[in-house]
Amino acid sequence: MSFLQVLRRSPATWRHTCLRYSSTSAPAADGATASGSSKKPAAPAAAATPLSSCPADTVLPGVNYLKGQGPVLAKPDEEYPEWLWTILKPKVYTDDGPGGKAERAQRRLENRQKIKDRNFMLTQ
């Protein structure tokens, strides 16, 4: 099983009990902030939340596929390359006019869907 296949699995199917954790502390139970005082709103929580779903040093079963290899441990988020966090996002093509990359990619997707539909109808 490749590393990407492990990433593509939904967290519900992972065999380890890794829970999403948060490095931010809970907001203060201050009446002034809840009532809308003159304080600035806090920064978005998305920037402070970790990127991975496992804390560091969590055992990742199923990732070690070599014989005799010890258990694979999760690393801290900072040790992974930046491109890893964007690998599952869909690719966005800039619209560069007729005959451009975006149009070709759209045609390919439509053609693949037509082939899938035709093959499905042949099995009925």
Automatic annotation (TrEMBL):
<comment type="similarity">
    <text>Belongs to the mitochondrion-specific ribosomal protein mL54 family.</text>
</comment>
<keyword id="KW-0689">Ribosomal protein</keyword>
<dbReference type="InterPro" id="IPR013870">
    <property type="entry name" value="Ribosomal_mL54"/>
</dbReference>
<protein>
    <recommendedName>
        <fullName>Large ribosomal subunit protein mL54</fullName>
    </recommendedName>
</protein>
<feature type="region of interest" description="Disordered">
    <location>
        <begin position="24"/>
        <end position="51"/>
    </location>
</feature>
<dbReference type="Pfam" id="PF08561">
    <property type="entry name" value="Ribosomal_L37"/>
</dbReference>
<keyword id="KW-0496">Mitochondrion</keyword>
<feature type="compositionally biased region" description="Low complexity">
    <location>
        <begin position="31"/>
        <end position="51"/>
    </location>
</feature>
<keyword id="KW-0687">Ribonucleoprotein</keyword>
<keyword id="KW-0809">Transit peptide</keyword>
<dbReference type="GO" id="GO:0005762">
    <property type="term" value="C:mitochondrial large ribosomal subunit"/>
</dbReference>
<dbReference type="GO" id="GO:0003735">
    <property type="term" value="F:structural constituent of ribosome"/>
</dbReference>
